[in-house]
Amino acid sequence: MQVLKFGGSSVATPDAIRSVASILQAKKTNEPLVVVVSALGKITDQLLQCGSLAATGNVTYKELIQSITQRHLDMARELVPVAIQSSILSFIIQQFNELEDICNSVYHLKELSDRTIARILSFGEQLSSHIVSTYLNTHGITNTWLDATKHIVTDSNYLKAVVNFPATNKSIQSVIPKQSDGLWIVPGFIASDEEGRITILGRGGSDYTAAIFAAALQASVLEIWTDVSGMMTADPREVKHAKVISRISYQEAMELSHFGAKVIYPPTLQPAMQLNIPVWIKNTFAPEDHGTIIESNIVHTKGTICGISSIANISLISLEGSGMIGIPGYSKLLFETLASCEINVILITQASSEHSICVGIEASIATKAKKALDKAFAYEINRGMVNPIVVEQDLSIIALVGDNMKNHAGTSGKMFGALGRNGINVRAISQGSSERNISAVIASADVKKAINVLHEEFFETTYKQVNVFIIGTGNVGSRLLAQIKQQQAYLQKNANIQLRVIGIANSRRMLFEEHGIDLNQLDRLDSAEPMDLQAFINRIQTMNLRNSVFVDVTASNSVANTYADLFLKSISVVACNKIACSSAYNNYQHLKGMATDRHTSFLFETNVGAGLPVIGTLNDLLRSGDAINEIHAVLSGTLNFVFNNYDGTRSFATVVKQAQDEGYTEPDPRLDLGGTDVMRKIMILAREAGARLEMEQIVNHSFMPASCMEGSVENFYSEMERQEAHFKKLYTEATANGKKLKFVANYKNGEAAVGLQQIDPQHDFYHLYGKDNIVLFYTNRYKDQPMVIKGAGAGAEVTASGVFADIIRAASV
Ligand SMILES: NC(=O)C1=CN([C@@H]2O[C@H](COP(=O)(O)OP(=O)(O)OC[C@H]3O[C@@H](n4cnc5c(N)ncnc54)[C@H](OP(=O)(O)O)[C@@H]3O)[C@@H](O)[C@H]2O)C=CC1
Ligand SMILES: N[C@@H](CC=O)C(=O)O
Asked: For position 147, what pLDDT does the model report?
């Protein structure tokens, strides 16, 4: 014996009903089959609307009945051969005449009782089951239509009738023999009381009908045919990569369904559950898909959770006050008051301090709840024992569900860690001792992000999505975009990272694409909307995408000033712009602290040595317990290039211009030549090593004539030409001494200095070519021989690759 139920979408159109027929044909079983059908999709709501319109004196119920009639007639005409249509057509017309008579009475009396509603709603299943039965009979699938109202016996609670199981089981067993190969078509949702008055079985009613038949006949399986391929790990409208759960326990199915997975309404499956009859969710439109089997004793081999679910439109009601501590009765009064107002409590939390109790309820009844509770606690409120009830709005509940969470440490840690890293604030938490569900109340605006973050954390075996926003498309920024474009597919395949560039801007334009900008079409930026920095930041925040990373590839002060706002929303920042880290010490510390507090990343490896692993190495030394005692370094790629290439044959200004053209200088090259860039770098290293250093404290032995540093960049170049003798002298003197010129940065005992030095051939800095940098760390462990980091220290390609590495680091947290 098998029982199958086809929901409204499975019988909504002629094609859907043809699919039902194919499914039944493919069954080819010798067992008896009971097929329960719902009303044609959306008909139940329309029937209810007919009743409501009539009851409120709105005569348009007649037009609605007309259109519902037409839909059923059209359906029958398309499915049943013309020659034998007349009987089903006259049945439909007769049924709708009866419906119209009932609605006319409602219209005249302006009265719509529960009994009448049940009667009106019953037409939906009566009609659909007759159409399906007739269609099958006329297409070689012989069946018997069975009137559920004659066999499911209930009390007289018309809209949510309670089944009399002994009477119902007996009646069903008497009409459907266990040993047969018959097929019965049964209308779902409807029953009748002992006086034969129509009743309906409430929410999920057709599932309930099917479960009642399955239990009465001790079916081997109950199949629920619907329009999705089973219960999913998350709502597929929210999570693109949600997967079908192939097996799930009754309890897990209950938890998931309660939290919004509307595939089935498990309480209605209770009769089947009690007899351990497996419930199989199948897709009428993709019958080859496996679907979901709900049964007992499921052993999940993978993962601790089976699904993530949510409920929207929640309000949190808080009862709080020092007068509650240790006094029994507060929660009793709270829950009694809510119950007396028929307010359903969805979630409850109470801290062990007993200082507050917090309940989650449907938002639409929050005002009613507050009014009732303020009244119930008026005495305590007036005496200051508790505060007036606080209602928080615009909230939702998200929940992890899974039998395996039991006895499995770390699930909640993983859950809240992932939410925290994405700046999702948790307002209340609840976990029952069954440990099958961990629920968290969060802002509704964060739900999509939260579900995706959790899905990635617990299920995503394919990839983690990282959403990048880049400001700066110049020398370094353009190379970064080219590297990302080249590497996107590789990252997805080999590192499970789907790196999407969602926003790009320069000082003129900004471009956004929520599903990722096509990096082959970067010229779209030229015609995109005008750049507005605040609007750019607002967009990142309101998009509220998971794993967002902001990348600053400018040298702009105003861009650096936005980091704090980004950290507030737990958005990671990657910067090659040195301004933030070389700003006032308090600001640098504040930003780092914010990033830590918000569990987000603030990465700026390229601030020193471009793509060289200087800051990372320094931090590794510190983390492993070492201490930095001295730093000696050549930190300017530009100056190293200039002094490596200048020998007096070309003017000093020409060599500097070459460094700028090759992309080694700052956007403003005076920062390099004047030593500011090196001061920033040694200060950043000193700060990372623990020193509280400011720019003003660093001694700069500048070699530049003051006149070069006055006025514009143009003036800088022309003045360097005029001062050529000065540069030549520096070169000649060093060469005469058998030495090379290097612009060196030193840090020791909390003091730092930068300046040009003549380096002799034995020195570590002597053999430093091109635009290379070198850093020597003298530490407690590296006392005599320093830790040395050396290599290309400037240039767009290497800097971009350092920024890229930071993005991946931020993404991998
Ligand atoms: N070159 C190197 O070797 C290294 C560079 N860096 C750092 O990289 C950063 C970028 O350098 P580089 O690419 O050479 O500089 P560029 O001048 O080539 O590019 C700067 C980019 O920033 C944009 N920009 C400037 N101000 C703003 C603003 N307020 N709002 C939006 N966009 C802005 C510019 O826009 P627009 O195009 O409209 O002008 C341009 O696209 C600098 O901070 C530098 O210190 C760090 C390590 C090494
Ligand atoms: N202008 C800088 C680039 C890296 O920070 C340099 O020349 O080193």
From this structure: 97
Most informative mutation of 576, 661, 668, 771 for ligand 1 (most atoms within 8 A of CB): 576
Pairing of strands 464-471, 497-505: parallel
- Residue 507 Cα to ligand 2 midpoint, Å, equals 21
Task: For ligand 1, atom 39, name the residue with the nearest CA.
Answer: 507
Percent of the chain having pLDDT more than 70?
97
What residues pair up with 429 in beta bridges, in sequence order? 440
235 lines ligand 1 (CB under 6 A): no
Give per-residue pLDDT as tens, 171-207: 999 999 888 889 999 999 999 999 999 999 987 789 9
The residue to mutate among 554, 606, 665, 679, having the most atoms of ligand 2 within 8 angstroms of its beta carbon, is 665
**Backbone torsions φ then ψ of 699, nearest 5 degrees:** -85, 130
pLDDT for the residue numbered 12:
96
Res 260: pLDDT = 53
pTM (two decimals): 0.76
DSSP secondary structure letters along 745-807: EEEETTEEEEEEEEE-TTSTTTT--TTEEEEEEEESSSSSSPEEEEEE---HHHHHHHHHHHH
pLDDT at 356: 83
Going by alpha carbons, the residue nearest to atom 4 of ligand 2 is 794
| Ligand nearest to the Cα of 672, by number | 2
477 lines ligand 1 (CB under 6 A): yes
Q: Is the dihedral of CA 77, 79, 84, 90 positive or negative?
A: negative
Among 435, 319, 485, which Cα is nearest to 386's? 319
Whether ligand 2 lies within 6 angstroms of the CB of 611 is answered as no
Regions of the chain with pLDDT less than 50:
none
Q: How far apart are CA 813 and CA 811, in angstroms?
A: 6
Q: Which CATH number among 3.30.360.10, 3.90.550.10, 3.80.30.20, 3.90.1150.10 corresponds to the domain 614-794?
A: 3.30.360.10
Q: How far is the CA of 559 from the centre of ligand 1 (A)?
A: 11
Cβ of 471 below 6 Å from ligand 1: yes
Pocket of ligand 2 contains residue 672 by CB under 6 Å:
yes
Q: What is the pLDDT of residues 38-92, one digit of tens each?
A: 999 999 999 999 999 999 999 999 999 999 999 999 999 999 999 999 999 999 9
User: CB within 8 A of 106, min separation 6: which ones?
Assistant: 51, 54, 55, 112, 116
Q: CATH 3.40.50.720 residue ranges in the chain?
A: 464-607
Active-site residues: which are they?
681
Give the CATH number of domain 464-607: 3.40.50.720
pLDDT tens string 335-392: 999 999 999 999 998 876 667 899 999 999 999 999 999 999 999 999 988 899 999 9
- ipTM surpassing 0.85: yes
233 lines ligand 2 (CB under 6 A): no
Question: Residue 322 and residue 93: Cα distance in Å, rounded?
Answer: 68
Name the E strands within 513-627. 529-530, 548-552, 572-575, 602-603
Mutation to probe ligand 1, out of 507, 642, 678 (largest number of atoms < 8 A from CB): 507
Pairing of strands 356-362, 307-320: antiparallel
Nearest to 207 by CA among 272, 268, 125, 123: 268
Distance of CA 436 to the CA centre of its chain: 21
d(CA 87, CA 465): 58
- The architecture (CATH level 2) of 307-446 comes to 2-Layer Sandwich (3.30)
> Does residue 769 come out as left (phi exceeding 0), alpha (psi in the -120 to 50 range) or beta?
beta
CB-CB contact of 43 with 128 (8 Å): yes
Nearest atom (ligand 2) to Cα of 641: 7
Is the minimum distance from the CB of 32 to ligand 2 under 6 angstroms?
no
Cα 655 to middle of ligand 2, angstroms:
15
Query: Which CATH number is 2-227 given?
Result: 3.40.1160.10
Residue ranges, CATH 3.30.360.10, the chain: 614-794
